[in-house]
Amino acid sequence: MSEGKVLDIAHISFLDMIKVMITMSGAAAAKGTLIRNAISTAEKISEVDYPSFDEFLAAIENSTNPITQVEGKATHQGEFVFGLENCPFAPSIGNYTEVFEKLPDGYADFTEEFNKPSKVTDTFRVGEGAGVSPFCSVHQPMRSAIAERIKIGGKKIKVYQLGCKAGSGKKGFAEKWLVETGITQDVVDKVLDNHMCCYYVKVVD
Amino acid sequence: MSGKEQLKKVLIVDDEEDILWSLQNNLCNESLQVDISAASSGEEALEILSNSEKIDLVITDIKMPGISGLDLLIEIKNRYPYTSVIVMTAFPSNEYKKEAILKGSLHFLEKPFDINDLREMVTLAIKEDNMFRGTVAGVGLTDVIQIKALSGVNSALRVKDGDRQGIIYFENGQVVHAICDDLEGEEAFYQIMEFTGGLLDSINVTNMPEHTIAAPVEALLIEGMRRSDEKSGSGDGGENSGNEDSIVEVEEDNAKKEDDMADLKEVLTEFTNIPGVNTACLVGRDGFLLDSIAISGIDTEMIGAIASSGFGASESMGTQLGKGALSMSMIEYNDGPVMLSPIGTDAFLVVVAEKDANLGMIRLKIKKHTSEIVDSAAI
Q1: Do A35 and B286 touch (CB under 8 A)?
Q2: What is the CA radius of gyration of chain A?
Q3: Mutation site for B-interface testing, chosen from A23, A25, A109 by largest number of B Cβ within 10 Å
Q4: Would you tell me which of A80, A197, B27, B171 could form a disulfide with B176, CB atoms 3.0–4.6 Å apart?
């Protein structure tokens, strides 16, 4: 006997809860809550100091790097630009849309809210056009917040979100962070051809 | 205590014997019982005043030989400040009226008059005498004006600052007229607002003057405070230079941001300077703190996060109810209120107050400073 489609209730509830949060207190407050939650999760990660950038890269390759442990394996594209092959929320989205066909209403407004310039997106160098779904507001700040717990040779690192790709294939680019890092949109566009997410790592002197 | 002892004492002063006699005999009726005495000159009136127990009300003619009614009025206000005065005149003129008002009487009667009008005026003037009088330290002119506005009264407020004085008239709580020095209308109101201290005296008005002010009380107060700020040098200190050419260097941008944030702190201080207000936070709609001034022990980051949900919920409720945009939200706790007010489209202000804080003042400051905060915080 076939088991049919089995829901992961945690996934379903989370996705529906975002919709409830938007309805109850608006997209801005919901965005803030999700970001604070992501930061809170990142703060649970142990701090780590890699002796060199190569050691940092090796940890990404073998999935022992804190960022990789949370979002999956990324690959270095050169010039400190990284591509993440799979969106960590893809299983949740897949599970939801398999049963309900489409994501809850209001997600587009939420994504627009995340991309608006704000203090928190400035602090974590995310959004600004790089958000393609509400999940980016969890994922991107979480990665940046985890990066604050990583050092290379005793120096802090900063992550800049350069671009992201939705399940539909639509790409989003953060012009502000492209300008600040000096990476061109063409480079990011190419990375996103084969990846879902593109970010830049800067070692702070 | 006998009934006679409880009667209010009224002194009528007029050099025309017929009028004096007529008023003495006709003023009292079933609804108005007062103890009347009479004087045919200002000199005699002063003698009676000095030899009697407190006279509650003096009704005097203006034009009299010897001490005129206006001079008598001045003497009464100097020596017996709690004695009310009704001025009668057969020569009504605005100049007379204005002079008498500034000398302390807000009650006029033009001869000839209906005795019932005089009775009504006497009743009001005596009622005025029954009100509280005194000084309440720490209560400002703005507070009193707001209280009068909120209570919807018909009355006048006499404001004295040293040798200067002005009067603000309220009709149904709206400011309708003001006089100060040679000024009338709004300019007089703003002049009074610039008084730095002094005495306030609330008076019932029987003859409401011609309206010279149409602006709402809040608008008058905001403009008055703005002018006072400018005079005291705590204003903006000049217009923003607006020198955006094309591309601003990042360092200049950062320097500007720092300046703006310093301005923002100054504006937030405007709130924490209100007695009873201890914390003012500017919070992004997403709940992340943009700036704050707070007493120790308050986790402003956490307050911002929580307040954003409350603010968002209040907005959502308004949307659901079709009530339009949220203009202000107040949450009252046992130990005082918290006020939330939108600032631009992307932020809101949280003002934490003690129980006895002046909410009207907080509201006014919010209205006054909203655009400044938007500019300073670049939101």
Answers
A1: yes
A2: 17
A3: A25
A4: B171
CA atoms within 13 A on the CB side of A104: 21
- Residue B284 to residue A116, Cβ atoms within 8 A: no
Q: What is the pLDDT of residue A67?
A: 95
A80: buried, middle or exposed (CB in 10 Å: 19+, 13-18, 0-12)?
middle
Q: What is the pLDDT of residue B209?
A: 81
Find, in chain A, the residue whose alpha carbon is nearest to that of B283. Answer: A119
- Which of B286, B305, B310 is opposite residue A28, by nearest beta carbon? B286
Contacts of B252 (CB under 8 A, 6+ apart): none
CA distance, residue B363 to nearest chain A CA (Å): 24
- Return the structure tokens found at B88: 């009668």
More confidently predicted of B37 and B1: B37
Q: Report d(CA B374, CA B367) in Å as an integer.
A: 12
pLDDT of B250 reads 43
Peptide bond between residue B337 and the one before it cis (omega within 30 degrees of 0)? no
| Closest residue by Cα to residue B83 from B136, B3, B9, B14 | B9
Quickly state the pLDDT bin for B92 (edges 50, 70, 90). low
Top residue of B247, B281, B286, B291 to mutate, by most chain A CBs within 10 Å, is B286
Cα separation, B96 vs B78, in Å, equals 19
Q: Between A and B, how many CB-CB pairs are < 8 A?
A: 59
Helix (H) or strand (E) holding A198: strand A197-203
Say whether pLDDT at A97 is over 90.
no
The chain A residue lying nearest B310, using CA atoms, is A25
Model pLDDT for residues B279-296, shown as the tens digit of each residue: 999 999 999 999 999 988
% of chain B surpassing 70 pLDDT: 81
Residue A151 predicted with pLDDT over 50 = yes
Between CA A54 and CA B361 the distance in angstroms is: 61
Look at residue B3 in the predicted model and tell me its pLDDT. 45
**CA nearest to A123 within chain B:** B288
Q: Which among B53, B99, B39, B50 is positioned nearest to B75, based on CA atoms?
A: B50
Assembly ipTM: 0.82
CB within 8 Å of B304: residues ≥ 6 apart:
B281, B283, B284, B287, B288, B289, B292, B350
Do A29 and B285 make contact, defined as CB atoms within 8 angstroms? yes
Alpha helices in B104-160 (DSSP H): 115-130, 141-151
Q: Distance between CA atoms of B205 and B14, rounded to whole angstroms?
A: 22
Q: Rounding to the nearest 10 degrees, give the CA dihedral for residues B38, B41, B44, B49.
A: 60
B77 Cβ neighbours under 8 A, 6+ residues apart: B85, B103, B104
